[in-house]
Specification:
The chain is mostly helical. It has ten helices and no strands. The longest helix has 19 residues. It is elongated and about 60 Å long. The relative contact order is 0.15.
Amino acid sequence: MSKTDEGRRAFLVGAVAGAAAGAGAVATAALVSDSQPPATPEGGLDPLSAAARQGAFLNAADAETVAAIAERIMPGAPGKPGATEAGVLNYIDLALAGAYTDLQEFYRHGLAALETHCRQTYSETFAKLAPAQQDETIASLEDGKVESFTWPAARAFFETLRTHTMEGMFADPVYGGNKDFAGWNLVGFPGVQLIFTPAELESRQAFTRSPVAGLQSKARSV
């Protein structure tokens, strides 16, 4: 893992440790409300056919791109799970077919604009770029400097994906991410516990005992 990856992980883990993971949905709603879609051509954008879907919503190509972006936002390291190990892709896919159905067009347009940029700039899809090229592309999104984006705006697309990556890492596993409590274990969050020992209540160290797996058994996967 590069020093850049280590710094990114440290910043994101620190931010999550001091805030509730569920607050991300509010941030997402605010971003999207500031960037509404333009009028579509007659007939609108055709929805993906059932045969083309990868899971609940994403097709194979889009799933590969989302997974690659999430992994660069929250990269894994030996002994430290990242977005891939935590099942962030599964979380986002399920969310877009459920609670975030209003963001389906947002994702479709954003992913299409991203692939246009990558093919024009590197003659390759985002998922197949070298890590340094992926980071360069993500930085351009964050800075709003990707000309292929109209709606959504490049920065809004990046911020939404970052928010959803954090939700997939740290939200309750019942929503399809945070596989095996990867995110909670990473930040020492205790999850649901029926009882804490006196030593645990007095400790200032990160919690290390596994969370109660009541909701984990009901987590969905596609």
